[in-house]
Design goal:
about 240 residues, 8 helices, Rossmann fold, alpha/beta, three-stranded antiparallel β-sheet, 2 domains
């Protein structure tokens, strides 16, 4: 395996939203061993690029659930438009109670909302209106994106640039927004806090949740594909 697509929220973070530093250390060790670790998140690509730059991970990152990719501080490629998601948000907010924008880092291609309304009712409204968007739940917020724009969209752009194939890649995540990556990559790992639906699409499921589960997942990768113990590489 040559590359890992690594989710952020609920995968590198704990319940209090703090980053699990051992998981970051494990990811940076995997990167040193020659497997690129690419952050693929529902957060902005700017946030992910900053994290990657300061933790020794790949400078290629995917943000906004596949809507953006970033390779340098000033280079953000937009893979979608915010126009349709904005129209869908306006429609939902007029026809459904408690639809509210979540205060986040500025977004270029998606709308991010609080998890304060019935998402299934929202999906039904958008489908009935034939709006060309997807409404998804990352478990931390609701997202409206252009139809068929997801994490695999941005990740495929990056691996194409790197000359890699999807079956040479591993995906690690916890939510339904990670499932397109699980389906795309040659190997996938769900951390224990993932839903049963997500777990069923994964090749492997960890015993532990969130950041601790990612430490376990990365050691599993090291065991299976590199034949090393990451703890032996501390010194």
């Amino acid at each position: 395996m040559k590359c890992i697509a690594l989710d952020f929220d609920g995968t590198l973070t704990e319940k209090d939203n703090k980053i699990n530093l051992e998981a970051i250390w494990s990811a940076s060790m995997i990167e040193r061993m020659g497997i690129q670790v690419i952050l693929v998140s529902g957060r902005s690509s700017q946030e992910m690029f900053f994290l990657a730059k300061h933790t020794g991970l790949s400078p290629y990152v995917v943000g906004e659930n596949g809507g953006t990719i970033q390779t340098s501080p000033s280079t953000i490629k937009l893979l979608a438009s915010k126009e349709k998601p904005s129209m869908a948000f306006e429609y939902l907010s007029k026809n459904l109670d408690n639809v509210e924008i979540l205060d986040t880092f500025p977004r270029h291609t998606e709308i991010v909302m609080k998890r304060t309304f019935d998402i299934e009712a929202g999906k039904k409204l958008l489908e009935e209106k034939n709006m060309d968007v997807d409404l998804v739940d990352s478990k931390y917020s609701f997202h409206i994106t252009e139809k068929n724009v997801n994490k695999s969209t941005g990740f495929k752009k990056i691996i194409d640039e790197l000359g890699l194939k999807a079956n040479e890649c591993i995906a690690i995540g916890d939510s339904e927004t990670d499932m397109p990556l699980f389906e795309m990559c040659g190997y996938s790992i769900a951390v224990q806090n993932a839903s049963e639906t997500v777990k069923k699409t994964a090749t492997h499921v960890t015993k532990f949740s969130r950041g601790k589960g990612t430490v376990e997942a990365l050691q599993h990768v090291a065991d299976k594909f590199l034949k090393i113990n990451l703890d032996d590489r501390q010194h």
